[in-house]
Design goal:
- The chain is of the alpha+beta class and 488 residues long.
- The protein folds into 3 domains: 42-63 and 74-88 and 102-279, Thrombin, subunit H (Beta Barrel); 282-375, PDZ domain (Pdz3 Domain, Roll); 396-484, Pdz3 Domain, CATH 2.30.42.10.
- Helices cover 20% and strands 32% of the residues.
- The protein is built from 11 helices and 27 strands.
- It has helices at residues 6-26, 43-49, 74-82, 127-130, 263-276, 293-298, 317-321, 342-348, 410-416, 429-434, 453-462, and strands at residues 53-61, 106-116, 122-125, 135-139, 145-154, 159-163, 173-174, 185-190, 198-210, 216-220, 232-235, 239-247, 258-262, 282-283, 286-289, 307-312, 328-332, 335-336, 355-362, 365-372, 374-375, 403-407, 422-427, 441-445, 448-449, 469-475, 478-484.
- A 6-stranded antiparallel beta barrel has the order 1-2-3-6-5-4. A 6-stranded antiparallel β-barrel has the order 8-9-10-13-12-11. Strands 15, 16, 17, 18, 19 and 20 form a 6-stranded antiparallel β-sheet that branches.
- It is elongated, with a radius of gyration of 33 Å.
- The N and C termini lie far apart (105 Å).
Length: 488
C-alpha cells in the first residue's frame, strides 16, 4: 500500500500552487484586438476596369484673335471655371506648322478621360471635355487611337457620348447607385494632367450633394485633377457608379472634395443622346425658392419642405393647371418634395406631354392639381413691372406694422395677373426690418387673401401683433414670403 507523506505532499502542493498561480499572475494580459477591416487592395479592380478607361484629347482649329500677347484666353477662363479638360495654367501654345495656313492649324485644346459604355464603341465622358472641339481623339489603354464622332452632349448634366469605329471592346459594368453608401471605398481611373491610366482611391463623402439643378452629385475625397474629368468612379465590385465631373478648388488642383455624376442619371441621359442626339426634359413653367422654417411654421405647413412658387409663367402648364404665386408644391406624382431642388429634377425627368399630379399648399390647406408637362426651353429673363400710374395716397391704418398701402388699379392687376392685393407706398419699423420694399404688392396676410385696402386694414386690426406676421407679396413677377416680427 502506498503511504502518503503529508509533509512532503504539502511541500509539493506549495511548489505547484506557486508554479501555477504565480505563472498566471506574471503572465501579461492578452491584448484586446479592435474589430476592424484591413485596407482594400485595388489591384484586381485596376486589372478588371483599367482596359475600359480611355484617354480623350480634343483639337480645335486655330482662330485669329485680337487679344494682346499674354492675355487670358477663353480656354484658361474655362479651366478656372470647371477645372477639367483644359491645358495647365501657363502651358505654351504649339507653334503653327510652316506647311499649313495658320487659320486651319489644329491645336491641342484639352485632355480628359472617358470609359467604354458598349462593346461596339460608344464612349461616355463629360460634356465640357468635348464641347467646342473640332476633333476628338480617343486612345485606348492598348495604345490604339481612334477619331471619335460626337453623338451628343448635355450641358445641364455635363454628360456626353462619343462613338469610335471598333468592336469587341471591353465595356464597363454599371453599378446600382442605390447600393452606394457613405464611407464606402471607391476608385477613379483617368488622365490627370495628361498622365494616362492614373489610379486614385478614397471614400464616398456624401450622396445627394446639391450643386446643380438637375443632378444630386456624389461627393468623394478621391484625388481628382484636371484631365480626370469624364473618367469613371468605381466601387469595390468593379462597377461604375459615377462620372468624375467637378472639384472644389481654390488653386485649380485637388483639395479633398470631388464630385461625380451618379451613373443612373448619366445612363438616362446617354440613352436619349444615342437615340436622338439631344435630351428632352419636362417643364411646368414656375420659378421656385426654398421654404424656410419660420415661414413653414407661421403658415401652418409644419416643417420646411416643398418648393415655394415665386412666379408662374403666363400660358405655361402650371398656369393652365391653376398654380399661383405663393403656392408651395409639396408633392409631384405622389413623391414628396423635401427641398426645392427636388422639383426641377422630378419634372425634368418626366416625359413632355405626360399628365402629372401636383399637391400644393395654399392658404392653410392642400389641394391636388393636374398638369400636362411641356418641353423645357431657355428661361425667359424676369422683367420688373413698371408702375405707369400715379401713386395714390397710402392707408394710415397699416402704419401699426410699419406700412402704408394703396389700392391697385385694374390695369396693374391685369398686368400682374392677380385678382387683388395692395401696393406698398412706404415702409418703416418692423416691415422695413422684414425686407419689405416700396412698390411691393401684398397679396395675403397670414393665410388670408387681400382684395383691397379696406380688407387689408380689417385683417391688420385683428392680427396678433405679438407674433410674427407672414406676408405673401409680389415683387415684379416673383412671389415670396416675409415675416414682420414684433419689436423687441
Amino acid at each position: 500500500m502506498f503511504k502518503i507523506d503529508w509533509k512532503t505532499l504539502r511541500a509539493y502542493g506549495l511548489v505547484i500552487a506557486l508554479a501555477v498561480f504565480g505563472t498566471v499572475a506574471l503572465m501579461p494580459a492578452k491584448p484586446v484586438v479592435a474589430q476592424g477591416r484591413s485596407l482594400p487592395d485595388f489591384t484586381d479592380l485596376v486589372e478588371q476596369v483599367g482596359p475600359s478607361v480611355v484617354n480623350i484629347r480634343t483639337l480645335e482649329r486655330a482662330r485669329t484673335s485680337g487679344a494682346a500677347p499674354g492675355a487670358v484666353d477663353e480656354e484658361m477662363q474655362e479651366f478656372f471655371r470647371r477645372f477639367f479638360g483644359q491645358p495647365m495654367p501657363g502651358a505654351p501654345r504649339q507653334t503653327p506648322r510652316p506647311n499649313r495656313p495658320q487659320p486651319e492649324e489644329e491645336q491641342p485644346r484639352g485632355v480628359g478621360s472617358g470609359f467604354i459604355l458598349t462593346t461596339d464603341g460608344f464612349v461616355m465622358t463629360n460634356a465640357h471635355v468635348v464641347e467646342g472641339a473640332d476633333e476628338v481623339l480617343v486612345t485606348l489603354p492598348d495604345k490604339r487611337e481612334f477619331k471619335a464622332k460626337i453623338v451628343g452632349f448635355d450641358k445641364r448634366t455635363d454628360v456626353a457620348v462619343v462613338k469610335i469605329e471598333a468592336t469587341g471592346l471591353p465595356a464597363v459594368k454599371v453599378g446600382d447607385i442605390t447600393r452606394l453608401k457613405v464611407g464606402e471605398w471607391v476608385m477613379a481611373i483617368g488622365s490627370p494632367f495628361g498622365l494616362e491610366n492614373t489610379v486614385t482611391a478614397g471614400i464616398v463623402s456624401a450622396k445627394q450633394r446639391d450643386t446643380g439643378d438637375y443632378l444630386p452629385f456624389i461627393q468623394t475625397d478621391v484625388a481628382i485633377n484636371p484631365g480626370n474629368s469624364g473618367g469613371p468612379l468605381i466601387n469595390m465590385r468593379g462597377e461604375v457608379v459615377g462620372i468624375n465631373s467637378q472639384i472644389y478648388s481654390r488653386s485649380g488642383g485637388f483639395m479633398g472634395i470631388s464630385f461625380a455624376i451618379p451613373i443612373d442619371e448619366a445612363i438616362r441621359v446617354s440613352e436619349q443622346l444615342r437615340a436622338s442626339g439631344r435630351v428632352s426634359r419636362g417643364k411646368i413653367g414656375v420659378q421656385i425658392d426654398q421654404v424656410t422654417k419660420d415661414v413653414a411654421e407661421s403658415i401652418g405647413l409644419g416643417k420646411p419642405m416643398g418648393a415655394l412658387v415665386r412666379s408662374v409663367e403666363s400660358g405655361s402648364p402650371a398656369d393652365k393647371a391653376g398654380v399661383e404665386a405663393g403656392d408651395i408644391i409639396t408633392k409631384f406624382d405622389g413623391k414628396v418634395i423635401e427641398k426645392a431642388s427636388d422639383l426641377p429634377r422630378m419634372v425634368g425627368n418626366t416625359k413632355p406631354g405626360a399628365r402629372s399630379t401636383m399637391t400644393v399648399f395654399r392658404r392653410g390647406g392642400s389641394r391636388d392639381l393636374n398638369v400636362t408637362i411641356a418641353e423645357i426651353e431657355p428661361e425667359k429673363p424676369v422683367r420688373r413691372i413698371a408702375d405707369k400710374d400715379d401713386k395714390p395716397k397710402g392707408s394710415a391704418a397699416a402704419q401699426s406694422i410699419g406700412l402704408a398701402v394703396s389700392e391697385l388699379t385694374d390695369a396693374q392687376k391685369k398686368e400682374l395677373k392677380i385678382k387683388g392685393g395692395v401696393k406698398v407706398e412706404s415702409v418703416a419699423e418692423g416691415a422695413a426690418r422684414a425686407g419689405i420694399r416700396e412698390g411691393d404688392i401684398i397679396v395675403a396676410l397670414g393665410n388670408t387673401e387681400i382684395g383691397s385696402v379696406k380688407e387689408f386694414d380689417a385683417i391688420v386690426a385683428k392680427v396678433d401683433k405679438s407674433k410674427p406676421i407672414p406676408v405673401l407679396l409680389r415683387r415684379g413677377e416673383l412671389a415670396t414670403y416675409l415675416l414682420i416680427r414684433p419689436a423687441r
